[in-house]
């Protein structure tokens, strides 16, 4: 067995093991409801917000959680323990802000710990200030303007890559140049492949997370379309992955009309 094959098998087994030990909540909800970041990757900084109507929002970070908290009525906030990824009551967690760990959606990290002793031990190695949830949330608000400026630049770069991904994978062959006009789709409700800049697309696609799921799994709007012989959006999970997938989502989203 060649060395490259051995390395591949080893990395595959590690990835498979990591999936099986992930908390069940992370397996159930794959993408951040706000930015569509991969929650399997960011499971140690994840948040689960239970709204007053009982529905839940999942985010990759306290940054995204803070935006939802500011816009929705939230009755329960759970944060991932940075050491294990297991969810804990955010209000009872211990926080380290400003450690040398890279922030998620922020230039400054804000990490939650279920146990104070583990937070203090982590602080000795990585620095940062020990605080509570309310103080960490306030730090997010203080950092919000500069973080959004930084994220906007990142999104610009992602959009450029996303356009290249769309062109390389023939997305524009169906959805039209710059997603502005789809090809004829006999038997479908609209009669054409959805254009990314039309209002109908915005009505159907409500979040980046939903868009990412459709790209990966494919989509046929309803059973009537399936029976009528309308073209089906194919699944791209075997072809578009990782950063390229995230870039494609940001490119398509940049063309989407506000709704």
Salient structural properties:
259 residues, alpha+beta, 4-stranded antiparallel beta sheet, 3-stranded antiparallel beta sheet, elongated
How would you explain this protein's 3D organization?
The protein is α+β, with helices and mostly antiparallel strands. The protein folds into two domains: 23-151, no CATH class; 169-255, Orthogonal Bundle (Cytochrome Bc1 Complex, Chain D, domain 2), CATH 1.10.760.10. The protein is 47% helix and 12% strand. It contains ten helices and seven strands. The protein has helices spanning 3-21, 24-28, 62-71, 116-126, 133-168, 171-175, 199-204, 208-217, 223-228, 242-255; strands spanning 47-51, 56-59, 74-80, 87-89, 94-97, 110-113, 129-131. The strands form two sheets. It has a four-stranded antiparallel β-sheet, covered by helices on one side. α5 (133-168) packs across α10 and α8 (208-217) crosses α10 (242-255). The radius of gyration is 21 Å and the shape is elongated. It starts with a helix and ends with a helix. The model is unreliable at 7-23 (pLDDT under 50).
Q: What class would the helix/strand composition place it in?
A: alpha+beta
In which range does the helix fraction lie? 40-55%
Number of domains: 2
Give a count of the beta strands, DSSP E runs of length 2 or more: 7
SSE arrangement, N to C: HHEEHEEEEHEHHHHHH
Instruction: Give a quick account of the main beta sheet: strands, pairing sense, barrel closure.
Output: 4 strands, antiparallel
Shape: elongated
What radius of gyration results from the CA coordinates? 21 Å
Q: Helix count?
A: 10
What does the oligomeric state look like here?
Answer: single chain
The averaged pLDDT comes out at 88
- Give the spatial strand order of the biggest sheet: 2-1-3-4
């Amino acid at each position: 067995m060649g060395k490259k094959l051995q390395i591949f098998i080893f990395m595959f087994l590690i990835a498979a093991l990591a999936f099986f030990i992930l908390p069940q909540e992370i397996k159930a909800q794959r993408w951040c409801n706000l930015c569509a970041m991969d929650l399997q990757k960011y499971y140690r900084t994840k948040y689960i917000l239970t709204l007053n109507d009982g529905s839940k929002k999942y985010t990759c970070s306290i940054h995204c959680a803070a935006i939802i908290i500011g816009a929705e009525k939230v009755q329960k906030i759970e944060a991932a323990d940075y050491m294990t990824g297991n969810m804990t009551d955010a209000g009872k967690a211990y926080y380290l802000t400003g450690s040398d760990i890279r922030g998620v959606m922020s230039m400054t990290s804000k990490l939650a710990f279920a146990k104070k002793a583990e937070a203090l031990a982590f602080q000795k190695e990585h620095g940062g200030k020990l605080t509570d949830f309310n103080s960490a949330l306030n730090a997010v608000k203080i950092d919000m303007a500069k973080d959004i400026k930084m994220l906007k630049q990142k999104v610009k770069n992602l959009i450029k890559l996303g356009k290249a991904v769309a062109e390389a994978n023939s997305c524009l062959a169906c959805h039209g140049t710059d997603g502005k006009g789809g090809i004829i789709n006999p038997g479908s409700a609209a009669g054409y492949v959805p254009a990314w800049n039309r209002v109908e697309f915005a009505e159907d696609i409500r979040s980046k997370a939903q868009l990412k799921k459709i790209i990966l799994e494919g989509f046929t709007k309803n059973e009537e379309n399936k029976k009528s012989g309308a073209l089906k959006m194919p699944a791209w999970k075997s072809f578009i992955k990782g950063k390229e997938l995230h870039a494609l989502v940001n490119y398509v989203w940049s063309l989407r009309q506000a709704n």
